Amino acid sequence: MKPATLVKTLDEMLSETKKGKLNWLIELQSTDGLSDSLKHKISEDGQEWIVDECFISFCCKFRGKDYLMITYEHIKRCKDQVRSHNLIFMPPLNVRYFDVGILSPYIVDADAVLLDRFHQLWLLVMDSYKKKDGHVSLKIFDPYD
Fold first, then answer.
1. Residue 54 and residue 29 in contact, taking contact as beta carbons nearer than 8 Å
2. Is pTM beyond 0.85 here?
3. What CA–CA distance (Å, rounded) separates 40 from 51?
4. Angle 105-110-112 from CA coordinates, rounded to 5°
């Protein structure tokens, strides 16, 4: 799917979600809450960087079609410096792996607008989940299991 088409679809999904007409299955795997001693470290530019990774899977049925969209954020920290890279994937429903290598054939060209829509969707579904309105199921996976 082209990025502009996905942005339009996400705009419609956001609208339908706000109206309570979409049900979401959100799956999350992140190293964010772990101790730095457990996180992957890389050497770059003569410095040691601590790496955080976050995968979020968004799954819903919209207009009779199943959608699976996975976002990935790779964050490197070194002292007061932070570098972040974001990827978006649209794999078939049976490819639900939190692995960039496996997901790479399904990458979507992401621009700032598309990444913003996914961020808006994340905020909206988390708000819905907190309200316990029954439209969002959340599963959290340990990154080291």
1. yes
2. yes
3. 5
4. 165
